[in-house]
User: Which sequence fits this backbone?
């Protein structure tokens, strides 16, 4: 299993689990406990296979930079994996509206990354 490298230094899993949850907030305490659970994932870069993905996560006071390698296995909280998988591109469809112009309509999303939970 690959070690999680953050800003060129090792970070404890407890410190990673204490990062703020960005985006959709948990509805209750039980959901938050589930999202903060440390699980092993395998990372796949679907957009550019083989290329590492580096991103910052957190808020202005508590922000960290992660780097995931294609095919690498990492122990991270579920909310980090949810964030990575939520990065997708819209798929647009253009159709005439009947008044001489064209409307742009989102018909789906194309995933850029996949985090597959591994079971030992």
Assistant:
């Amino acid at each position: 299993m690959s070690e999680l490298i953050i800003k060129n230094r090792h970070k404890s899993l407890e410190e990673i689990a204490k990062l703020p949850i960005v985006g959709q907030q948990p509805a209750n305490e039980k959901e938050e406990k589930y999202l903060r659970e440390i699980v092993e994932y395998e990372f796949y870069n679907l957009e550019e296979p083989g290329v590492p993905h580096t991103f910052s996560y957190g808020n202005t006071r508590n922000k960290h930079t992660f780097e995931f390698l294609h095919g690498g296995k990492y122990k991270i909280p579920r909310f980090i994996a949810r964030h990575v998988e939520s990065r997708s591109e819209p798929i647009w469809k253009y159709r005439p509206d009947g008044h001489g112009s064209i409307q742009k309509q989102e018909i789906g999303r194309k995933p850029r990354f996949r985090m597959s939970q591994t079971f030992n």
